[in-house]
Amino acid sequence: MVKARKYVVKRHFQGEPKKDDYELIEYELPPLKDGDILVKAEWISVDPYLRAYNSQIKTPYDQFSSQVGIVLESKSPNFPVGCRIVSQKGWCDYSIVNPKDKLNVELGVYKLPNLGDLSPSLGVGAVGMPGATAYFGFLEICKPKAGETVVVTGAAGAVGSLVGQIAKIKGCRVVGFAGSDEKVKWLETELGFDKAINYKTANVVQALKEAAPKGVDCYFDNVGGEISSQILAQMNLHGRVSVCGSISSYNDSNLPKATIVQPSLVFKQLKVEGFIVSRWLDRWPEAFADIIQWIKSGKLKTREHVTEGFDKLFDAFVGMLAGENFGKAVVKV
């Protein structure tokens, strides 16, 4: 018998998640059945959507998220011992996975793509769900053209930092918003953003006018709130908006007020579309192939905010929600 540990969410979060909202449970895993694999987690992801989905799910529930794990025992010929898999088993150190179960098929359980010398942690980052989110959410919805101006909020996060770089690869001018001068410097000097703005200290309206004097063609929205209304007001005719999330309000008990956006949508004839990345699940390998090639060629840079220790998962989660991370927040188990 293998002893496993998992984090269970006991109640819906009120404001910022609290440690006593979780319970750490130790239990014994049963013997494998035909088709099952025993997986030891190596890398576990913490992402904004874990907070967003909390109010939508009946409690208690096991804390889901992406993880990269190594197969220790297998009764599935397609997943031999020693291979690495990506699953949604989340905040647990050992798990039994049946890749053919309906839910696993829907969520996507697959072998880690061949990363060569790159870290397996990328399987929950640039070569995982966040990478697919940036790739499809930007390219399929915004459909950028070379020479256009792209604005990204949450630009120093796991998804935003990739969107900005993909936009540069496609020949666009990129403006990013982030929450510190250090992040602004990173975006401009290391990732190649044309301009980055600290939304906490700048006059957003004026700063954006100076950074994008010809207006905004594409907007990738990670944060929502008033800043999004301000950006929409400066968009060009037939601009495209990809709505990925609204992290600015996830911890707020009372939703913040923002300027109405309908006049901008109507008079600029904007296309605004929200998405969940599983829409393109069958095409994820297409994104991963491009992203791996971009990383290896030096066109796309990845940065990870690594927290070590299974017992530090909660700390990594609330730290990510507070914006402590540059790039992808991951936990090394």
Instruction: Give the total of beta strands.
Output: 16
Low-confidence stretches: none
Q: What's the number of helices? A: 10
Question: Helix and strand succession?
Answer: EEEHEEEEHEHEHEHEHEHEHEHEHE
Q: Helical content, roughly?
A: 25-40%
Question: Alpha-carbon distance between the termini?
Answer: 20 Å
Query: What is the total number of structural domains?
Result: 2
GO molecular function: 15-oxoprostaglandin 13-reductase [NAD(P)+] activity; 2-alkenal reductase [NAD(P)H] activity
Keywords: Acetylation, Cytoplasm, Fatty acid metabolism, Hydroxylation, Lipid metabolism, NADP, Oxidoreductase, Phosphoprotein, Prostaglandin metabolism
Pfam families: ADH_N_2, ADH_zinc_N
Organism: Cydia pomonella
Describe the structure.
The chain is of the alpha/beta class and 333 residues long. It has 2 domains: 2-125 and 302-332, Alpha-Beta Complex (Quinone Oxidoreductase, Chain A, domain 1), CATH 3.90.180; 129-276, NAD(P)-binding Rossmann-like Domain (Rossmann fold, 3-Layer(aba) Sandwich), CATH 3.40.50. 27% of the residues lie in helices and 26% in strands. Strands 3, 5, 6, 7, 8, 15 and 16 form a 7-stranded mixed β-sheet that branches. The protein has a 6-stranded parallel β-sheet with strand order 11-10-9-12-13-14, sandwiched between helices. A 3-stranded antiparallel β-sheet has the order 2-1-4, with no helix packed on it. Helix 5 links the parallel strand 10 and strand 11 (195-198). Helix 3 (129-142) crosses helix 9. It is globular and about 65 Å long. The protein starts with a strand and ends with a strand. The relative contact order is 0.15. The model has no long low-confidence stretch (mean pLDDT 95). InterPro entries: ADH-like_C, ADH_N_2, ER, GroES-like_sf, MDR_fam, NAD(P)-bd_dom_sf, PTGR1. GO terms for molecular function: 15-oxoprostaglandin 13-reductase [NAD(P)+] activity; 2-alkenal reductase [NAD(P)H] activity. Residues 19-331 form the Enoyl reductase (ER) domain. Belongs to the NADP-dependent oxidoreductase L4BD family. Keywords: Acetylation, Cytoplasm, Fatty acid metabolism, Hydroxylation, Lipid metabolism, NADP, Oxidoreductase, Phosphoprotein, Prostaglandin metabolism.
